[in-house]
Design a protein that fits this description.
elongated; Rossmann fold; alpha+beta; 9 helices; 2 domains
Length: 362
């Protein structure tokens, strides 16, 4: 196995530059997930690693090899596609072994590789079936099996679970993560689903318009987002953002919302945010860091427009008294009702403050 290094990578289609000066280092045996909205450049980046897209500028290294100009077959990468890309007229066994046959691998070695892949992926009962007789999850395991038998330096996954239903996606997430642990392989995985990214990755790379906004462990992205884009993209439901000002006073430092509501900043965070006294900010707080009722000193008013019971908790969707959109995750047995104002307590030790002009975190 080997790591991957992208140095000053750019990609342009004619006069349109979609990636400009991207740098990314992926360690050997690391599971890295590229995540972001559609059109952010994550799949293009993956395809440049695999050689399916020609790099406009920069260098692609796999291990200690410069593969920037090598064709895909010489890079020793295996790619698993969104649409499985299986041969419908071939059995599972033949789909898995096709690449080895093309390379002239002898029959005994092919049988050994197929047996290992089938055992790892639970495909032993299906080796003589054709893809049309398999479920979506089984087809995806066949595609992964075809990648495994190549013994590649790097596994590349391009939104492999997007065609599966919700239950199968959860099962396959677990299978791919377990596969990474067993193979101790370098894996680069692309998805637009931040839940997939958070649950599977050793490190998540959040991309936006061809730029890496932040690359960090999942918990770091959640707890200390670098900017408003990352804060909004990571976490479901998305973080709330409200216009505010930081102000001192007799009661200590506080966040003052645009309607005049004063939310005290905990004393332990005064050193960090004291320099913002008198300055406008964007106050960010996640729905799960809010509570139903006036349970503490930091209370704001909300006007629900919809109540969404989800079993273990309920989402109150509406707006703050300032008119800005607001979502709060409250107790499942809340008495909240649409069009009836209610107090919401903010857990201020979990809040975030952002620069209103740049979006960067303070």
């Amino acid at each position: 196995m080997a790591g991957v290094s992208l140095t000053n990578i750019s990609k342009a289609y004619g006069d349109v530059t979609v990636i400009d000066g991207l740098d990314l280092s992926i360690e050997d045996k690391e599971f890295v997930v590229l995540v972001g909205p559609s059109g952010c450049g994550k799949t293009t980046t993956l395809r440049m690693i695999g050689g399916l897209e020609v790099v406009t500028g920069g260098t692609v290294m796999i291990g200690d090899r410069d593969v920037t100009t090598l064709r895909p077959g010489l890079r020793n990468c295996s790619m698993v596609f969104q649409n499985y890309a299986l041969y419908p007229h071939m059995s599972v066994r033949d789909n898995i072994t096709y690449g080895m046959k093309v390379r002239g691998v002898d029959r005994a070695e092919m049988d050994r590789h197929v047996a290992d892949a089938a055992r790892i992926l639970g495909l032993e009962p299906y080796l003589d079936r054709r893809p049309k007789h398999l479920s979506g999850g089984q087809r995806q395991r066949v595609a992964i099996g075809r990648a495994i038998v190549r013994n590649p330096d790097v596994f590349l996954f391009d939104e492999p679970l997007s065609n599966l239903d919700a239950k199968l996606r959860i099962e396959m997430r677990t299978e791919i993560k377990n596969l990474h642990r067993r193979l101790e392989a370098t894996m680069v995985y692309v998805t637009h689903d931040q839940v997939e990214a958070m649950t599977m990755a050793d490190r998540v790379v959040v991309m936006n318009q061809g730029v890496i906004e932040q690359a960090a462990e999942p918990i770091t992205l959640y707890e200390t987002p670098a900017n408003m884009f990352v804060a909004a993209f990571i976490g479901a439901p998305s973080m709330n953002f409200l216009k505010a000002t930081v102000a001192g006073g007799e009661g200590g430092l506080a966040v003052v919302l645009s309607d005049g509501t004063r939310l005290p900043i905990p004393a332990g965070r005064h050193a960090r945010f004291g320099k913002l006294d008198g300055r406008p900010v964007v106050f960010g707080i996640r729905p799960e860091h809010m509570a139903d009722g006036a349970q503490g000193p930091a209370v704001m008013q909300a006007m629900p427009t919809a109540i969404e019971p989800l079993g273990p908790h309920t989402l109150v969707v509406g707006h703050a008294s300032s008119g800005e959109p607001l979502t709060a995750q409250v107790d499942a047995h809340t008495a909240a009702a649409p069009d009836r104002a209610m107090p919401i307590t903010c857990m201020m030790e979990k809040m975030h403050l952002f620069d209103p002009d740049t979006g960067q975190a303070h």
